[in-house]
Backbone:
């Protein structure tokens, strides 16, 4: 069980546990367009949807999860949260979900599975959660382009080494960067992740910045504390 300031997330049935990536995305994603409807693609424990329920006034927050155990855990976490009336989880794959889209979304978020190395672990459930073949980037971008409302925002967190490729794919689907934040663990480590936000409009000015998580072990930067202190108990 993982306790945040305003909600609790059980994760014993999920292959992918709560990590920094999901929390970063949930805290960083812009809600300046005051989304009425939000979709979290590949919900896992449901933590990103829960964070966005806390941060926003969105009335419809949908999540999508293909793994049965993770789906059931998400449903439990949603039902036990203060925002159960606004949260709903679909048990389906992305391809199935986009076949008959019923809604457009003002905000689409995803912390996609992204290990592209050629090895698999012995844990099939973890592999499905973690490897790109569970949800190729192109499928994710195509779905976002289909489901995003006119003034909607699409936000993801991906490995920094995939950033250029992801931006090029998004451009093919007429999704253009709005904001890019590159994440480093410490001041002396290399950039590990890219947080990317897209819109349908080509933006004259794209905000590009860098976020460093800690200066040394468990000594967090003011920027990281500012981003996450509404959620973490000890921030």
Residues:
């Amino acid at each position: 069980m993982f306790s945040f300031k305003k909600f609790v997330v059980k994760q014993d049935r999920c292959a992918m546990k709560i990590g920094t990536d999901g929390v970063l995305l949930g805290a960083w994603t812009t809600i300046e367009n005051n989304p009425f409807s939000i979709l979290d693609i590949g919900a896992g424990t449901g933590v990103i949807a829960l964070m966005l329920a806390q941060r926003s006034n969105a009335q419809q927050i949908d999540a999508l999860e293909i793994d049965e155990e993770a789906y059931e855990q998400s449903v439990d976490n949603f039902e036990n949260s203060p925002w159960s009336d606004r949260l709903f989880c679909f048990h389906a794959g992305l391809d199935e979900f986009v076949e008959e889209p019923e809604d457009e979304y003002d905000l689409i978020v995803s912390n996609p599975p992204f290990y592209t190395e050629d090895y698999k672990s012995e844990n099939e459930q973890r592999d499905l959660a973690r490897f790109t073949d569970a949800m190729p980037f192109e499928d994710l971008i195509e779905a976002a382009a289909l489901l995003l409302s006119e003034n909607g925002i699409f936000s993801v967190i991906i490995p920094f080494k995939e950033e250029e490729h992801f931006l090029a794919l998004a451009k093919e689907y007429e999704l253009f960067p709005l904001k890019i934040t590159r994440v480093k663990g410490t001041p002396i480590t290399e950039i590990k992740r890219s947080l990317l936000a897209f819109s349908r409009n080509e933006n004259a000015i794209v905000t590009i910045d860098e976020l460093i998580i800690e200066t040394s072990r468990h000594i967090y930067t003011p920027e990281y504390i500012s981003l996450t202190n509404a959620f973490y108990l000890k921030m």
